[in-house]
Every structure is written in C-alpha cells, then in structure tokens.
Specification:
The complex is a heterodimer of chains A (about 210) and B (about 140). Chain A is built from five helices and eleven strands; from the N terminus they run H-E-E-E-E-E-H-E-H-E-H-E-E-E-E-H. Chain A is of the alpha+beta class and about 210 residues long. Chain A has a five-stranded mixed sheet. In chain A, strands 1-2 form a two-stranded antiparallel ribbon. Chain A is globular and about 60 Å long. The termini of chain A are far apart. Chain B is elongated. In chain B, a hairpin with a 2-residue loop joins strand 1 and strand 2. Chain B has a two-stranded antiparallel ribbon. The chains are: A alpha+beta (about 210), B mainly alpha (about 140). The interface between A and B is medium-sized, with 18 and 12 residues.
Amino acid sequence: MRFSILYVALSCIAISSCNQNDSLPLYGPKTATLVEKNGVKTIDSADYSIPNFQFVDQDGKPVDSNTIHGKIFVADFFFTSCPSICPKMMKKMDEVYEKYKTNNDVVILSYSIDPNRDSVARLKAYEKKIGFESSKWHLLTGNKDSIYNLADKYLVSAAEDPDAPGGHIHSGNFILIDKHRRIRGYYDGTKDDKVQKLMDDMDILLKEK
Amino acid sequence: MTRAKIIQYLAPFTMVFIVLLFIYNIWSHGTIVHPGQASYKVNCAQCHGEDGEGIKSLVPPLKNSDYAAKNIDSIPCWLKFGLNHPIIVKGVGYDQPMYPFDTMRVDEVQVANIINYMNQEFFNIDKPVSSQWVHAHLKNCK
C-alpha cells in the first residue's frame, strides 16, 4: 500500500515535470498596480515585457514595435567590428534564420552596441557578407543611449570598455521574446547545443496561443 | 625492499600503462591526436571552424587558403597581434579584423603546434616549424 502511494506520487512528479517542458518560463519582475473596482481594491499584476522602441535597420527603414507586432522574435547584441564572439554568434544566428526564413511569425533583431560607427551602410555591407533577407533579420542602429537602455530591459549586459577586444563588452546571449514581448529564454549564441535548444523552444513558442 | 627493487618492480607496469594510454588515445580519436589540435579548437575554431571552413564572407576559410600558404612567415604575427587589413582569400575579399591570441595563455611552443596543425590539416605543407622559428618570426612583426 505504501509503495503504491509512492508510485502515484512519483508518477505525478514525472507527469508534472513533463508538462513543464512544454511551456517556457517568463523572465523579469511582474509589475503590480492597485486597481479599485466597485469600491474593492485589488492588485492587478502585469508580466514583464520589452518596452516600445524605434531604431533603423540596414535598409534605413524604421523598425519599431509595430514591425514586430504579433510575431515572436530572437534578439541579440553585436557590433560589426567585433573581433571576438560575434562571428560565431552570427554563424549560429544564420542557422536560426535559415530554419525560420519562410515563417512569417518569426523575426530576428540584432542591435548594434556601437551605433556611432555602425551606420546603415555599414550594417548593409555586413548583411551582404552573411547573405540574408533584411525584412526577416534586422540589423539595428540608432541612438546609443537608447540601445544601451534597451539592453538593460532585455536584462543583458552591454557596455563600452577600452580594454575589451573591439572596445565593447556585451552578452553573447540570444534572447527569445514572445508575441506579447515577454522574455521567454536566454541561450548562449556561441554554443551549438544552446542554439539547438533555442530552436526547439521557438517551436514550442510558435504553438502557444 | 630497497628503492632500486621498487623501481625494478614498478617499471614493467609503467611501461604497460603508457602503452595502454597510447592505444586508448588512438582508439578514442581514431588517430594520434596532433598536439596543436586542442589549442586550435580553443583559440581558432570559434570563428574559422573546426574544419577550417570559415564563416561565409565574414571569416576567411583556412582550408586550402592560398593567402595563408603564401604568407606562412607572417602567421606568428597574425596570431600574436591580429590582422587588421583587408585580404583576399580564394578570390573573396575579407575585411573583418582578426582578434589576436591572449598571449598570456598561448606561448611560442603552442603557436608552433597550432601552425604545424594548420600546415598539416589545411595548407598541405609538410615542413614542420619549431618554437625557435616562431620566436625568430615574431621579431619581424610590423
């Protein structure tokens, strides 16, 4: 009898952990607001999400929250003269691009953390070196402070550092964002297995309503 | 038991152990591992790829690179100081800067090992280089 209870308990744990694999976590703090309805005060909590932004891409076209409305997207931070981890990140992101280039529900955003040097023309030249569709994979430049502030909102690091190769340090993470602009995963963009996990998670996220 | 006797007793076991290690090495890798392979993987393969294939027009390939084969004497300098000018490899132009090695981590013996590994794997050059050769060529870096 005791054993059967143990089995039931174990299988419950097993089933619940299986279910967990089918949904992705939400990152970032929730915001709580006090709402008063019919004289009753309740706390309304909202999920953390990436705020509105507007930058220009390698075609000089504005890319903002409307461009990505209703789509899931993968974001990362890079700069074109980056000699260290960026080439590898670009190679892995290109694999993600190749897999989802015909899927209209997916967009890729690569923000330059060296926007003063990374002009539209320079981003376009970089795109040509890898060879991809600009409507699907936007390389973004704009106001430097806005980009660094946005990196904070993605909860990743980006900073200028004269001692670092190329003069900047930044996270090598790919960040997965859902249709409601909520952060759903971080993946090391230089590791084959982590990028595979990203693509597995994207498939899960695409099925989410 | 005297010290000599202990050594006499252990010597055959040590020999067998070394031979077994050697066999294990061949068995697990299919071949004898080149001493430069591990350093290549850590320091170069991130961008140039494990098979020296490069990344599209971003990072030049090393496999059958005419540019590298022509400029073997400059390779120690590239590894130590990076490469910051446009080059043409197999008819394709590349202008991304190359990041130099962390010289705190890679010494001249390792540089020689890596060059020998690349010579063998990618450039089809038989002549091995020594750490003295690396040392001498590093003096001529511009």
